[in-house]
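Data availability (excerpt). The following record was deposited with the supplementary files.
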Amino acid sequence: MKISIGSDHRGLVQRKFAAQAIEALGHDVDDQGTFTDEACDYPDIAELVCDQVAKGQSDRGILVCGTGIGMSIAANKIDGIRAALCCDIPSAKLSRQHNNANVLCLPGDHLDEIQFKAMVTAWLTTEFEGGRHQRRVDKMMQLEAKANTPT
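Predicted structure:
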């Protein structure tokens, strides 16, 4: 898989942990930055990563900011994106199993290196269960289509 990653300045160090976990699983990393610790705007990074996923140029995306909240809100504004803000391994797994999340948003301020890598690994190795969950994912995507239909 090709995984697009990005962070604002507050997730710079943790984004490197994500890249290490991705590469340890044998996947390719598409790093969209930021590449300095200067303050930057997380919606810009979310757009770069999510565009790669939405266009099929990356299989999934991972975003990091201080709390993960801003990234998740910005990511979910992009058509085709199902971004999940996760703070523990069970939620990361369930975001894949039940919601088929294609973007993982993580809080850089609240996870250490071991937790961070474990969550990325869990998310990337968990498959979507389909079945009744597919019906619900389809309904979410219908909401998106409805929101984008002119009235």
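Summary of structural features: The mean pLDDT is 95.
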